[in-house]
Fold this sequence. Notes:
- This protein is α/β, with parallel strands linked by helices and about 425 residues long.
- It has helices at about 10-25, 40-45, 80-90, 100-115, 140-150, 165-170, 195-205, 235-240, 270-285, 290-300, 305-330, 360-370, 400-420, and strands at about 35, 60-65, 65, 95, 130-135, 155-160, 165, 180-185, 215-220, 250-255, 265-270, 340, 350-355, 370-375, 390-395.
- Helix content is about 40%, strand content about 15%.
- The strands form four sheets. It has an eight-stranded mixed sheet, with helices on both faces. Strands 12-13-15 form a three-stranded antiparallel sheet, with helices on one face.
- Pyridoxal-5'-phosphate binds near residues 218 and 220.
Amino acid sequence: MTAYPKMTAEERKAEYAKVTKEYEDLKARGLKLNMARGKPGKAQLDLVSDIFDLMQKPEDYVSDGVDVRNYGELSGLPAAKRLFAEILGCRPEQVFVGGNASLQLMYDTISKAYTHGLLRSERPWCREPVVKFLCPSPGYDRHFKVTESFGFELITIPMTEEGPDMDAVEEAIKDPAVKGMWNVPKYSNPDGFIYSAETIRRIASMKPAAADFLLMWDNAYCVHEFEGDFVEFPDILAECAKYGNADMVFEFASTSKITFPGGGISCFACSEANMAYMEKLIGIQTISFDKVNQQRHVLYLKDKAHTLELMKKHAAIMGPKFRCVVDALDREIAPLEIASWRRPTGGYFVSLYAMPGTARRTLALCKEAGVTMTGAGATYPYGKDPQDSNIRIAPSLPPLEELEQAIAVLCVCLKMAALECLGV
Ligand SMILES: Cc1ncc(COP(=O)(O)O)c(C=O)c1O
């Protein structure tokens, strides 16, 4: 197979006629497939549904002497704090266990910075003339939307295989209006990159001009390998503390992709000084979070080792799906030299870089053929991919047979869009 950019105009024309025919055939199947969001598939939800067999006896409602059915323990059940602390490698006193979604805790942290200010703020961010936030991109669309919704100016920081481009970060933080930075340090969304030790050292030792700089450390995929063994990661709280930055960081995690998205438990971890400050503010919002679900998760997940065993079972379901996607791309697209991608080993996405200027067209073609994918540009601030290239593939939800069809559609659409861009 000749690479498309090396084809003559005649060859491209013939190839375009061929792939258009394939596309029309696929379209005629009336497919309705969704690869838009990183949702676990039904088999994964079934896998963990025995969690509901727990908590049948009265003593199951008592944890460390606390009746989990009643008000109290604002910052979470001690046992739930111990569980997250063991997974994240920090201390239980540094953990606040919240409700069903870490995104809500992230939003709330930003929101509090805006309305009340953070521990080290001179004034609430709403009183600042401009607030800027660093967004390593491509990144998680919902992160960017949170900071956009508060009217912050989003600054794109290029992502590399080692994590965010730290030269760009170190330059940007000289501006006191730069108040924080989003991070997904392990299996970044969507690239699946793991921040290198050197990147983490440079982040932890930053000296931002803003005294209340907020390092948002979203460890959403901290135990989510689907290929190979568990990859250890450093405790970011200890790393930051080492460089006198103990109060700069808030780390987030949840069981959304361990048990149930939207039905699990979440946490943030921070310095004890930040914890005291946050507890005061959160204590006005709520008396306590859902400790019944916290207890259910403590009894079910038990500890880190047991959680990692469960993640192996998720991996047995997820691994073949990711292999199906990447194998199809390797087979169908690699020889054409119209896109690039890497083989992730954890997280929930495959990040594909289509020929610049073709992502939007590719996804429009997919949609017309019944395959919904994450919108073009979603992985960049303001939903605008300057290259119109990045496509986020979320292979977890469809069963394998459907996934095969969906990826076949994507491959044909990539080919059509590339040929159109090259000229047919
Ligand atoms: C990086 C990242 N953080 C957070 C979330 C959402 O987590 P939660 O369900 O705990 O709000 C997702 C979901 O896709 C994600 O990709």
